Amino acid sequence: MISSGVASDPQLAALIVLSLTSVATLLGDGYTTMVALQHGFVEGNPVARWLFKKIGQSFTLFAEAVVALFAIGAISNYNLNAAYLFAGILTAGEGAMFLRNYLKLKKSNISLK
Question: Checking phi first, is residue 8 left (phi over 0); if not, alpha (psi -120 to 50) or beta?
Fold first, then answer.
């Protein structure tokens, strides 16, 4: 979405890395959520819980990743620094949820396998 004349190669590389880390942490959160749900935990986010019932967890996770990448791209079209910030906040938030889920599973002696 960024025109080649606006952003340099290192700026684009940074945006790609941030986008990939956002998706990676989102997938990590999704995976640990899946494991937790299989062991009797309940999804805390009411919107996600509703979407899981309507379209399933896999498609919900896919839709979240698509929306996140679209949002990062759309924001970068207007303000590259804002896109960096958004992707960083998304990465930090999803990373925190992944870590929280992982620690709850570990405390309950549940393997991620």
Answer: beta
Helix (H, G, I), strand (E, B) or coil at 109: coil
How many angstroms separate the CA atoms of 60 and 47, rounded?
Answer: 10
Q: Residues in the chain with pLDDT < 50?
A: 1, 4
Q: How far apart are CA 54 and CA 62, in angstroms?
A: 14
Per-residue pLDDT, 6:
67
Which residue in 58, 65, 63 sits closest to 19, CA to CA?
65
pTM assigned to the model: 0.85
List Cβ neighbours of 105 (8 Å cut-off, separation of 6 or more): 32, 35, 36, 39, 111, 112
